[in-house]
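Worked example 3 (structure in, sequence out).
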């Protein structure tokens, strides 16, 4: 296995958030204790995905290349591998469990190999042929009759049980994302579900323990993750999000989609009562027709209806999960769709519980630059990647310092001449 190359004795990681509206590449240094220092960021608009799924390989490859090149320039490194996001309504989840007997060594003390064996047993679940397991997340362990164990390594027993959360995705969707990344001469260290990555970036441990619902409203999908007792219990992805809001505005105001997106970003409000009756906005017409001035409250009415639909679908998903009454910490909104005025107030009215906007925290370096809900998934990919590197080294170095690369080039030519 290749060892990761270093820059200033720190391992470089890259998170690649492949979204419907944009592709973001974030470069970070993995510091001791799994802390992350962000040193580079690149972003480019995305036209090759629809509702989180690749529909145009060439366009997606170009977006990834542009984002990677921008991140390389800012970070001063050559990117070789990435932790990439995956989302879409094909994402499924289920809870499973596995049981193994503790091996008769060292007085039946649980070790890392026992953990690996019981997790392998838990992931042996029947899933549709067109799905693949993306990740398996331990919820708790049971050793003999003792339940709710978080870390059983070192404990003594005879029977170990693991309860886990399994997230699956469509084989074709995962393969197409991997193909796009590979076409950019990059290696995929891992495909990580978007809601899992966002949760790593914006949720606190207290929220996970008390119970919380994360809602990541992107352009193409609304991703949901439910945590109780410190662990993920339910995952879902809805094929309705910010792009539908833009389409509603374009249809209702008879304006081209690019202008509808601009109106949404500048003037939209998710709660009509927050828009004053005297406020007006300029709306570009289709073709050669002159622009018009319309009431901002009309815009808010259109937007509010779509956000109400999104939150109703989330409520239905919560009821289906069986955890609706267990999220004492409330709701955390993140993603680009969470930045709109009135979203928190509308969510509080509908969910009848506390709601806050989730921004990435717990990172160093360019923390102010990424302190925005739109970067939740990208930063979370780095945090998740750092945790996984704590357990295993990547098969390919994520990146190589430019200075080191040129040193090798100079050494080569010195040897040749």
């Amino acid at each position: 296995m290749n060892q990761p190359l270093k820059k200033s004795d720190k391992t470089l990681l890259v998170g690649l958030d492949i979204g419907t509206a944009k592709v973001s590449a974030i470069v970070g240094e993995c510091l001791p204790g799994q802390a992350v220092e962000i040193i580079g960021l690149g972003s480019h608009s995305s036209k090759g995905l629809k509702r989180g799924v690749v529909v145009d390989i060439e366009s997606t490859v170009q977006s990834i290349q542009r984002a990677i090149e921008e991140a390389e320039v800012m970070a001063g490194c050559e990117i070789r591998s990435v932790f990439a996001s995956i989302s879409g309504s094909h994402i499924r989840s289920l809870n499973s469990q596995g049981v193994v007997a503790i091996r008769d060594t060292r007085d039946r003390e649980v070790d890392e190999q026992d953990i690996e064996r019981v997790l392998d047993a838990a992931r042996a679940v029947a899933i549709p042929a067109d799905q693949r397991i993306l990740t398996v997340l331990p919820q708790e362990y049971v050793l003999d009759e003792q339940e709710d164990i978080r870390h059983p390594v070192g404990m003594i027993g005879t029977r170990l049980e693991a309860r886990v959360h399994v997230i699956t995705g469509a084989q074709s969707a995962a393969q197409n994302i991997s193909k796009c990344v590979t076409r950019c001469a990059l290696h995929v260290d891992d495909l990580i579900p978007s809601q899992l990555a966002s949760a790593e970036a914006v949720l606190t441990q207290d929220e996970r323990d008390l119970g919380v619902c994360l809602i990541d409203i992107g352009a193409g999908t609304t991703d949901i993750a439910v945590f109780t007792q410190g662990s993920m219990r339910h995952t879902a992805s809805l094929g309705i999000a910010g792009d539908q809001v833009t389409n509603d505005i374009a249809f209702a105001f008879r304006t081209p989609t690019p202008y509808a997106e601009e109106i949404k970003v500048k003037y939209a409000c998710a709660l009509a009562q927050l828009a004053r009756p005297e406020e007006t906005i300029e709306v570009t017409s289709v073709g050669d027709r002159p622009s018009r001035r319309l009431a901002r409250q009309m815009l808010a009415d259109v937007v509010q209806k779509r956000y109400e639909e999104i939150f109703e679908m989330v409520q239905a998903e919560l009821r289906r999960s069986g955890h609706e009454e267990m999220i004492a910490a409330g709701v955390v909104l993140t993603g680009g769709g969470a930045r709109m005025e009135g979203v928190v107030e509308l969510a509080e009215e509908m969910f009848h519980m506390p709601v806050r906007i989730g921004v990435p925290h717990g990172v160093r370096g360019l923390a102010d630059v990424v302190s925005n809900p739109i970067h939740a998934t990208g930063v979370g990919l780095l945090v998740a990647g750092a945790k996984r590197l704590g357990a295993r080294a990547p098969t390919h170095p994520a990146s190589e310092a430019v200075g080191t690369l040129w040193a090798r080039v100079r050494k080569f030519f010195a040897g040749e001449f």
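Notes: The longest helix spans residues 296-321. Confidence is low (pLDDT under 50) at residues 1-9, 401-417.
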